[in-house]
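Repro case for the chain-ordering regression, as requested:
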Amino acid sequence: MSTPRHFAPLARLLHWLMALMVIAMLFIGAGMVASVSERHEWLLQLHKPLGIAILLLVIVRLVVRFTTRQPPLPVDLPGWQALAAKASHALLYALMLILPLLGWGMISAAGDPVMLSSSLQLPSIVPADAQAFALLRKAHGYLAYLLFLTVLVHLAAALFHGWVRRDEVLDSMLRGKG
Amino acid sequence: MVDPSSEPSRPPLGASSLALRLSGIAVIVAALAGTFAYVNGTLDPQRLTPNALVNVLEKNNGVHPGFRRNHSKGVCVVGYFQSSGEARPYSSAQVFMEPRTPVVGRFALPSGNPYAPDNSVPIRSLALRFTQANGQQWRTGMNSMPVFPVGTPEAFYQLQQAQSPDPATGKPNPAAVPAFFAAHPEAKPFLQWIKTAKPSASYATETYNGINAFYLVNPAGQRQAVRWGVVPVAVDGTQVTPPQGADFLEQDLVQRLAAGPLRWQLNITLANPGDPVNDASKAWPEDRKVLNAGTLVLERTQSQDDGECRDINYDPLILPNGIEGSEDPLLAARSAAYASSYLRRTSEVSQLPANQESRP
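-- result from build under test --
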């Protein structure tokens, strides 16, 4: 069996689905905390269930990642770029996993019921504690900005591969049978 | 294995083509970053944000670390709510079904200064958190006035700005508040009320009004616009002790509760079609049907520095299934601004006076 030249179809589906969800989520979060209008409320009501959906999908995605074979990076890629690619992918996975947990944790620490809709309630995962809330809430905000920056770098690097280096890296996520 | 990128299918890019492609990438990344900076308010400095609302309160009252940025002086109370069952046909909320629901509340003064004398304002407030058996909560913040001075967060912000100290004199411009009210005729009902309002000697004798409109929703999905409030039951209006000093309200409350629990009736006023549900500055006509939803029983006080109410954000949009927010724009603004105040003060818990004194 030869090394695959493309990501598995399920991996590609999850990548693009989550790309949309994560970018939507970042904009929803940023808009929500900067608004006092009704927008604040309906963005918040989107933010919570979408965050839990991302948490579930990233777990599926990690399973897919470790059970399918990834196309290798081009051999002529400079060492620092290969390292940056691997580190940024690890950071993306870590942040997609941690941010929903921080959000869930901060609502729990505030002593608020964790409501995904008017009647769907999740259990608290952190005991109510003001200082824990402040810490989790700040971490949620700062790490969301880090995720946005990482997404921008990831996007720029993907386009660099596709338009400047013109290797198969971008193509491996866009199409192909494997 | 042949690495595909080493295949000779890539003639080097010319300088202009390379520049064009790199610029393309830069434009796409910059567009995304710029949109984000607009959405988060960085590129939209005129937008009224939760932080701006809380900043103006801090500007007017000073920063008192660990305290709420508004309604800063208060006391925690603990008790329960006994449902009468009268609200059941209108709302599926468990609080109206169960005979008893535990409550953690907080009486307060509507000022951002935690050391304001109790007679400095004629308004008192009561916030409540009902914790239902199913884990859902109903939080509400009520005030002793019947209407809010204004109907929108923007007008509330301007009213706060009118009370801000002038950088030149260090004092508020005395003409600013009258000018604000001249430009805001919607404040008339509030101004009419405040003309005769006097600082009460007790929290126990006051009626507290939710002011904002909400919807009760029953299991059939029918929505009824409502406003709620609590009215004292069989309260002894005579003062236990005449008001003395700056902190008589808490002393009075402790004395009264030592003699037994205090009770309020929870009244839920049903709107008629056409009554304004999006404007807290407008009262509803007196003849509207009022449900007696049950009795609020408060049993004991706790210090606000370490009592249960300290870490509760009385966000009016934390509601159980069966109660929903209305189109009132103040609701979302309160929810958003309380979140900003809550983050600030929870970051400063260790700086509260009670926590300072206990240190060596």
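Ordering looks correct now. The first strand of chain B starts at residue 74 and ends at 83.
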